[in-house]
Design brief:
The protein is mainly β. It is 3% helix and 49% strand. The strands form 6 sheets. Strands 3, 4, 6, 7, 17, 18, 20, 21, 24, 26, 27, 29, 30 and 31 form a 14-stranded mixed β-sheet that branches. A hairpin with a 4-residue loop joins strand 6 and strand 7. The longest helix is centred in the N-terminal third of the chain and has 6 residues. The radius of gyration is 24 Å and the shape is globular.
Length: 434
């Protein structure tokens, strides 16, 4: 997925900033005979484990507290009977040296997503030309469903090359190739649009799709409107560090332009009027802390051209508390504590080694405290005397951990479902118990 540089690393989920937070699912496995006791209501949990692109992950261990561990089938499916809700569920990805824990699930049909693509990378190349336009910016982008790939054409020659990449089993994409040209204003934002065009295109893995040439007669001068509004920072202590606006075509998004440097709490963008297209604005702000900053991010989607009173709300980021930065003697009995961020959201706590090949633990929870479960039996126990670090992400709007264990969770944070946001805590280092 291919938002702007900021969103691409974020999110994906997550991925743009100096953090990478892969997702996985995990729980603790010990037998509890009371789970089938008379009068206790139980459910059968039947779900799937999938990677970032929705591809099934087979052969990984799923553990539900109080039940015998099971292994996912070729289609990523698993089933565990006689489960008492709420329950903790874990997916142990041995080859990724990672365990992800979902705390307090109640649903019987979880889809557990790992936020890394494990399938083979696929590529396709789109080439062509647009009319050269000195001093103007021309972007060319291909959109298919939720996918979008974008490039800026050469000002003098009009040449462009789009290197489309994706993971997963999909071999081809049917969509449209678009051209949009504008003159830059003094603030490096579009001042006037003077060319727009589109044409159908299908691409397939391994192919080169050449001669996608647009001439003057293929382009029209689009009508123009504006979108504007305000940004609410969590507090004045947060400094705005980025603003971008996007073209929303269906469920896909394409970055148009962005601002950086000294930013105000208002925005106003000139936008082209394109049939069926809406717009989105993302903003992010940082709070200076020690040893690293906290960050607040929000994406406001589906803005109609002509809107003048849009409000983008940035929420307070969570604050890491204990173990404090550079703490020592940390083990599976140590409580990790933090202060809640703003809004209704779910926390992902990432506990990862700072160097070397050691287990990583990712825990989804509604609570503001967790301990690291003991996965020694699975070969992923917390190693002794080893440097680690921990950090929090609070995702919103996400009402429960059940919502995280749904097929739509990752698409929400790819920006394919509307408004979303997150807050990121500072990073604290610690050393495990000798």
């Amino acid at each position: 997925m291919n938002k702007a540089p900021i969103l691409r690393q974020l999110c994906t989920i997550l991925l743009v900033f100096a953090f990478v937070l892969p997702l996985v699912v995990v729980g603790f496995g010990c037998k509890n005979d009371d789970s089938t006791a008379p009068g206790v209501t139980t459910i059968t949990v039947s779900g799937f484990v999938k990677d970032y692109d929705g591809e099934p992950i087979s052969g990984v261990v799923v553990i539900i507290r109080g039940s015998t561990p099971v292994t996912t089938a070729g289609d990523g499916s698993f089933s565990v009977a006689n489960v008492t809700a709420p329950y903790d569920l874990s997916v142990v990805l041995g080859t990724q040296n990672t365990v992800v824990i979902f705390k307090g699930l109640t649903r019987s049909d979880p889809t557990l997503s790992y936020s890394v693509s494990l399938a083979t990378l696929k590529t396709a190349t789109i080439t062509g030309t647009v009319p050269g336009a000195a001093g103007k910016t021309t972007i060319v982008f291909f959109v298919s469903g939720t996918k979008a790939w974008r490039v800026t054409a050469n000002q003098a020659t009009g040449d462009f090359t789009i290197n489309a990449t994706w993971y997963g089993s999909t071999g081809s994409y049917v969509g449209k190739l678009y051209v949009l040209r504008w003159t830059l204003g003094p603030n490096n934002l579009p001042l006037v649009y003077d060319a727009y065009g589109e044409r159908a295109l299908t691409i397939s893995s391994g192919g080169t799709f050449a001669n996608n040439n647009f001439v003057v007669g293929d382009l029209t001068d689009p009508a123009e409107q504006s979108i504007s509004g305000t940004i609410n920072r969590p507090t004045t202590a947060y400094t705005l560090t980025g603003k971008q606006f996007y073209l929303n075509i269906g469920s896909a998004y394409v970055v148009v332009a962005g601002e950086s440097g000294t930013l105000t709490d208002n925005f106003s963008y000139n936008v082209p009027s394109i049939a069926g297209a809406l717009f989105g604005v993302n903003t992010f702000a940082t709070l200076t802390t020690t040893p690293t900053n906290r960050l607040a991010f929000a994406y406001d989607a589906g803005i109609t051209p002509g809107t003048s009173n849009e409000v983008v709300n940035l929420l307070t980021a969570p604050q890491a508390n204990l173990p404090a930065h550079n703490g020592t003697g940390i083990d599976t009995s140590t409580a990790f504590l933090w202060t809640a961020g703003g809004g209704t959201g779910i926390y992902l706590i990432s506990i990862a080694p700072t160097a070397g090949v050691h287990p990583a633990y990712l825990i989804y929870t509604q609570s503001t405290t967790v301990t690291i479960p003991n996965y020694s039996a699975q070969g992923l126990g917390l190693p002794a005397n080893t440097p680690y670090q921990w950090q929090l992400v609070q995702y919103y709007p996400v009402a429960s951990v059940d919502a995280v264990a749904s097929p739509t969770f990752l698409s929400l944070f790819r920006g394919n479902q509307g408004d979303y946001g997150f807050g990121i805590s500072e990073i604290f280092a610690f050393t495990t118990k000798p």
